[in-house]
Design a protein that fits this description.
The protein is an alpha+beta fold and 96 residues long. Helices cover 40% and strands 20% of the residues. The protein has one domain. A hairpin with a 2-residue loop joins β2 and β3. The longest helix is centred in the first third of the chain and has 19 residues. The two termini are 16 Å apart.
Length: 96
């Protein structure tokens, strides 16, 4: 595994933990694909539970983008996050 991929996976895991602390469950699932259709994943709500669904086969940078998009609208200032993780929660940040 490349150093960059390992770093991005660690960052994705940190954002997943931040989501958990904010009451959002993140699920890495194998999303089914059909010809002409590509499921991306993203935030959803199931009854009273807030979820973020991510395709587990998606590159780490794309996983980070989906998690960060879902968390940007939430109050995360009270959480301790590494400077790199906090930077991704700012609008217009590209994880690549």
């Amino acid at each position: 595994m490349s150093e960059k991929r390992a770093r991005l996976l660690k960052l994705a895991d940190e954002l997943i933990e931040a989501a958990r602390r904010l009451g959002v469950e993140v699920r890495r699932e194998k999303l089914l694909r059909e010809v002409g259709y590509r499921a991306r994943g993203g935030p959803c709500r199931l009854r009273d539970q807030h979820l973020i669904i991510i395709d587990r086969e998606m590159p780490p940078a794309d996983q980070i983008e989906i998690i960060a998009e879902a968390l940007r609208g939430r109050s995360h200032e009270q959480l301790y996050l590494s400077p790199a993780a906090r930077r991704f929660l700012q609008p217009g940040t590209d994880p690549a």
